[in-house]
Structure formats: C-alpha cells, structure tokens
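dumping this here so i dont lose it again. seq + smiles for magnesium ion
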Amino acid sequence: MAEPMIQTRDLHRSYRIGRTSIEVLRGIDLSIGRGERVFLCGPSGAGKTTLLYTLAGLEHPERGGVFIDGVDLYAMGKRRQAAFRNQTIGYVFQNYHLLPELTALENVIVPGSIGGRDTTEDALAALERVGLAGRAEHLPAELSGGEQQRVAIARAIVNRPKVLFADEPTGNLDSATSGSVMQILLDLAADHGVTLVVVTHDATLATRGDHTLVIQDGAIHSGPLPAAPGDVGAHTAAPAP
Ligand SMILES: Nc1ncnc2c1ncn2[C@@H]1O[C@H](COP(=O)(O)OP(=O)(O)OP(=O)(O)O)[C@@H](O)[C@H]1O
Ligand SMILES: [Mg+2]
C-alpha cells in the first residue's frame, strides 16, 4: 500500500440518550494510503457519518487517535487543529450545509478567507472545475440539488486539501447526475493526488474506487455485508493489518 495518509488507532465513540448508550465506533483501526480513493459503505445508522466526522477532526473520539499525514489530529490545541483542518482537509457534508444567504461564489470563498487571503480567483477556478462557473451569483435556493452538491464540492477543494471526505455526495441525485458528481471527485483525487474517502450506498459507484470499507456493528469488516435492501456489499476491503 502507498504511504499512509489517514490512520486510526482503536477509535471509540458512543452516544448516550437517557440511560441508553449506543456504541457506534468500537475500536476502529484503519489505514488509507496517500492518493487512495476509498468508498465507505454500511447500513443506515452503522456509523459512517460518525466515523467521517471523527477522521476529519469534527467529532472527538472517546478513545483512540486519528493521524492525518502523520499528525495526531486530537493531540493539538483547538486553534491549531482548526487551522490544520482548514489547510489539509476538505469535507462535503451529507446535506450540503451551504450558507443560504451567500451566493455560490461567496460560499466557496469562505474557507480561503479564514486564512485571511483573497481567494476569489481560487473560488472561481473551483466552481469552474465542477462545471458551475455560470452559477456563481446564484443563491443556494436558486440552484438544483446536484448544483448545490457541486458548490459544496468546490468549497471543499478550494484550499487544495490533501484529504477529501464526502458523505453521500450523490445521495439525493438521479443516477446520471450521481455518476458525474462522483467522477468529478475521482478525477480531482487522481489529478492532484488527493486522498479521497466517500460514503455511498451505490454499489455501482463504489466499484470505481481503489478499495471499499464496510462498517457494521462498530467495526470495519473485510467480508461482504449480509444482504439488506439498499445496502452495499464489500467490493474489496482494506482494514489495517
Ligand atoms: N449526536 C448524536 N446523539 C445521539 N446519537 C447519535 C448522534 N449522532 C449519531 N447518533 C447515533 O449513532 C448512530 C450512527 O449514526 P451515523 O449518523 O454515524 O450513521 P450513518 O451510518 O451515517 O447513517 P446514514 O446512512 O443513515 O447516514 C445512529 O444510531 C445514530 O442514531
Ligand atoms: Mg450518515
């Protein structure tokens, strides 16, 4: 495998509601190589979003560590971690999370402006990359679902991250649009050596990556999932050795 870009050690995360505790991540160990394109599958509620949040520095694990490019994500202070995330990690959220009062272009400018730079040119280039140069002045409400998703991708790549996470980026799209949005992500990864982790329920799309990881019962499985409607079995799997 290529040199590791994302590694986890014994990741644990549970949620407590009243007296009930749900153990969502039960000791996840995985290793994803630099430039690899990995699909993450598993049943609804299995913990895909929780795992992605934890890998991206958005959800503190109760136990264990996450290493991005050799850096221990949860061992640094909040400010340093925020700066590291801003520079190194791109994230496409399950429900886009665009700011409704900002135009497409302004949404894409935001991550760059956090570093105090004028990134209008970079933002326009990112919109062009996802085929939306003609929609720069539209508000999210004036865009289709697929267009909003592509704005979210442009925003995630504007700082040229080393790692890109995308949580069901094609969940609400028709199959033709899904295919083209997924291709944009795969091409970006291939062209710039970005390490890509994408959650998907679509078995056909998942075969386009280098590996498929399946999460179930709080662990990463290497074998195929038991058949469940709408869920995806393993294509190949690469849990940590
Ligand atoms: N903030 C929270 N508080 C309590 N429980 C939570 C919280 N977030 C997630 N959970 C629970 O953790 C489990 C995993 O949720 P998660 O969102 O990671 O699943 P998922 O695999 O992404 O599902 P889906 O495919 O439906 O998006 C679920 O049972 C969910 O109810
Ligand atoms: Mg989810």
